[in-house]
Amino acid sequence: MQAYLDVVIRSVSAILLLLLIAKILGKQTISNMTFHDFVTGITLGAVASNLAFNKNIKSSYMILALIMIAGTSLLLSVIALKNHKMRNWISGSPTVLIEGGRILEDNMRKVRYSLDSLDQALRGNGVFNIEEVEYAVLEDNGMVSVLKKEKYQYVTKKDMKLHLHPQSFPLELIMDGTLMENNLKNNGLTEEWLEAELKRKGKKISDVFYGVRGTQQQLVFDFYEDGIHKPVDQE
User: Fold this and answer.
1) Which residues are 32's β-sheet partners?
2) For residues 235 and 225, what is the distance between their CA atoms, to the nearest angstrom?
3) Phi and psi at residue 94, in whole multiples of 5°?
4) Which of 25, 64, 195, 235 is least surrounded by CB atoms within 10 angstroms?
5) 123: left (phi over 0), alpha (psi -120 to 50) or beta
6) Is residue 81 within 8 Å of 28, Cβ to Cβ?
7) pLDDT tens profile 127-155
8) Residue 200: what are its φ and ψ, rounded to 5°?
9) Which of 130, 143, 138, 9 is nearest to 63 (CA)?
10) Helix, strand, coil: what percent of the chain each, to 5?
């Protein structure tokens, strides 16, 4: 029984320490995984798992190791902010994959980036025809940034000199079929108002999978019944 209790205590301690370290290191560690963040994450995970389950190593050693790794990672982050050359070594640097509409095969080989990965990244940026791309850059966090050729870029309201309307943050009203009562209450809305809006569409709250009030106060609903009889892709 004592052995089980020891594992429980060590496991909880490992989770709490990792949460604390993640808080200290900042959101970038989980949102933009650079070389530095990747190495830090793997090392912290390995040490934390040993803290949780490896009873042959003292807990104090593992805790000290976590603190040292977190401290080293924090120090490297500070150095990267202060020194450009060190930042390139610690976090990596962007690599141009497409320039002037031409794929740079040598650069792709250097970073071992395949055409399949490039196509996938372009689709993730809403580009299905490679001929639309002027520049594509592999960022140091592994994401690909795309600049379309001018003739394929979207026209903005500013370009057309149209009147601009104020925007608000989207307000989720229903998520996973559950009414977000606090969101309604905090924004002066009621369930009765929502039911009335849905009634106009011949629907009720139980029919809605996802409902949101958009940036222009418009209501958008996704219903459980999609009316798509032959989906393009079905798992």
Assistant:
1) none
2) 17
3) -65, 150
4) 235
5) alpha
6) no
7) 999 999 999 999 877 889 999 999 999 88
8) -65, -25
9) 9
10) 50, 15, 30
